[in-house]
């Protein structure tokens, strides 16, 4: 008799089981404890690793198929952008400053996330966890590569893109993002998941990729929209993994709660400080703006973060300790940081500028309680100095926070006229901080943070305070990469080339 | 009640998907922003394969959503027929 074998297609849950759990095995020659030693170092108690499940139930076969599709879409647009002088469709070349910060500070973070997930994929014992970490490790290296590739087209025409790797390691504002990732990568596997999965993915990437990428579209930058949304399609999975990890730890053992809460407090504040860069990019560096930093924070911070913490309240989790201080800072941080960037623009591998009258009108409409009162007068003063031929340059070096590494330019919660400054003494040495949040983090792990490499002290300890030598070392070309946008090569070139593209003269 | 949301790239592939989400979630609010569409819903949002197939006129695997997904919020639960986002309160 003829037997016709009908090929039965597996359901999603079945396929997930076969292609994750069924790939694992019980070790025979070594104990599990010897194979996975790091998973016990942090005090997290896990009783059943099989309880960890990827809610998307993505398996490797489907993963490759969809990632290949994303890459095809990405390169179709990147090629068209390069072939059609896409850079001349930008609203204005000032916009490129935001991209330069992105390339110098954020893309290397993607690479760091790749390394971290490759490592913890090995350190976690659960198969579901290992497979999810493996996918994320591959995603993150894809993000680093596609971002560098997309922005390399701008490097052919504009300053400030050529030495992003040196900038990442050596310049001051990039060390904010770098120290965030170094901190995460030198933590244990569970803390790494909170640092990246919760803080970077859930808190940061929504604010960084979503309104900012929509802003890139608004400013005619198809290359960036494309890498941004292509990366963000993976981030949805990463955020979900981070959230699953938090729930998993809390469900496995009640003793995990205080440890997890401590990490949420720490990494919320670490992430919030990195957002200082993002707030400035959104409020000041996009010539056409989709929404203000305040509006983006309302949606992705207050509403979405609030929803997450109400959800986690069933496990005993409360909102992060720095939540109220963060709320106090929202209407100030972008202005305070942009004023800092402008006065130290000799040391930035991007341009900054005095906001135009139109920009200032927009800022006062978006920040009715703070901009006219505290920040417009400062810009007006800076503008007057520039008109008089004595532009305001601060050649003094900023005091950096030992934890987040931002210059201490932020103000006291509740008093925007007073600079916030904290210090602590540890083993006879004095350390400086920008906020209570950063000081608390230091005091919890002082032996970690006293080892931090800070760019400003390093200028003295390694280069004897020689700024020209420092510029060579960080690969910053004085007069080209840095300073005011007004009068820069980027401005001159963009105006000339756009003129050529739109006329016959 | 907390809001859940899903954001998709604005393109030809997602147009029928967004229509399907609107059909299945009458309480949802669709926000159109440059290059993207963000759909908010109070507490819960369901994406159903069958409705997408009706709008699209072809068979659809819900995991194809991965290609045009920008971000989402809420606890995720997915099987072959539905993708559900929800908050527990
Ligand atoms: Fe990424
Ligand atoms: Fe990610
Ligand atoms: Zn700090």
UniProtKB/TrEMBL annotation, chain B:
<dbReference type="GO" id="GO:0004497">
    <property type="term" value="F:monooxygenase activity"/>
</dbReference>
<dbReference type="Pfam" id="PF02406">
    <property type="entry name" value="MmoB_DmpM"/>
</dbReference>
<dbReference type="InterPro" id="IPR036889">
    <property type="entry name" value="mOase_MmoB_DmpM_sf"/>
</dbReference>
<comment type="similarity">
    <text>Belongs to the TmoD/XamoD family.</text>
</comment>
<protein>
    <submittedName>
        <fullName>Phenol 2-monooxygenase subunit p2</fullName>
    </submittedName>
</protein>
<keyword id="KW-0560">Oxidoreductase</keyword>
<keyword id="KW-0503">Monooxygenase</keyword>
<dbReference type="InterPro" id="IPR003454">
    <property type="entry name" value="MOase_MmoB_DmpM"/>
</dbReference>
